[in-house]
Amino acid sequence: MVKGFVGVIVLSILTLFGPTQSKTGCQRAVGTVTNVTYPQHRDMRNSVALLSQRGWYRGPDSSSVPVSGHDVLGDIVKFDASYRVPTASSAEAVASGEKTYARVCTPCHGPSLDGNGPVWLSKKYMMPPANLMAATTRARTDGYIYRYIRFGGAVMPPYGAQVTAEQAWNLIHYIRSMQEKTPQ
Length: 184
Description:
By secondary structure, this protein is mainly α. The chain folds into 2 domains: 2-58, no CATH class; 76-181, Cytochrome c-like domain (Cytochrome Bc1 Complex, Chain D, domain 2, Orthogonal Bundle). It is built from 8 helices and 2 strands; from the N terminus they run ααββαααααα. It has a two-stranded antiparallel ribbon. It is elongated and about 95 Å long.
């Protein structure tokens, strides 16, 4: 009697949570039970690495990339005033900056750095891109330009994922060289 009652309960559970096709057997029922402890938002990025041979939890590696959030600047006014490009301007740096500018910046700022790129000329956006040849941009510090390239600003989105720190330095060298060639 007890075996029959337990069999009916097991059969009921398998019927409710069981597979819809007879070919899969109890795989779906087992998967449903294990998903209770591991919800959908748990994946390899959000889980902690367990070294089973040692038996303790390991934190992230020092060279790992954060998957949530981004680099955070504490005091941006202090950063803008104190940051200096760590590399010297050279012909190679300016040429590299020009290539990066053509690939990343030209759609908004235009080929002549005046803010009249194809994105602005399409008239889909209300705020124009900055004129990099204007007096206000010339007066900006290297830290300000670097921060805007990497972290974005009021109008410009962040390009830290598309432009490395070295490419940002080369962009600053290119912008400064173009400002020197074209006085306003």
